[in-house]
């Protein structure tokens, strides 16, 4: 969780590095897209938290009384909160297109992939249906990965 916090902090407040996009009309269009994607990312995170309900925990292992959620956003992606955070990182990159922000966002993706992999070991142990859920639903990016 510390590395996750550092990466998110770097995305938001760290050095941005040299600009990836310098063309003014394109930069303005990407910034507008970034704002829209950021709003969508926020909505996704809020809905995912609501879908989890009492199962929500800051820790990666499930609560003792947790149930397996497979509806709502969880029918499209197994880790929609992570997806929402990644989408927010992309939005920030579109608004502030610095090379370091791109690197931090890529790092965040790999961190979430590793974290989700570990989390899913606990979920498979806890929920017999989880393996079938893994086969049906993508991990971090709906319909892609």
Structure description:
The protein is an all-alpha fold and about 140 residues long. The chain has one domain (about 25-135). Helices cover about 65% and strands about 0% of the residues. It is built from five helices and no strands. The protein has helices spanning about 1-15, 25-50, 80-95, 100-125, 130-135. Helix 1 packs antiparallel against helix 4 (about 100-125), helix 2 packs antiparallel against helix 3 (about 80-95) and helix 3 (about 80-95) runs antiparallel to helix 4. The chain is elongated and about 55 Å long. The two termini are about 20 Å apart. The model has no long low-confidence stretch (mean pLDDT about 95).
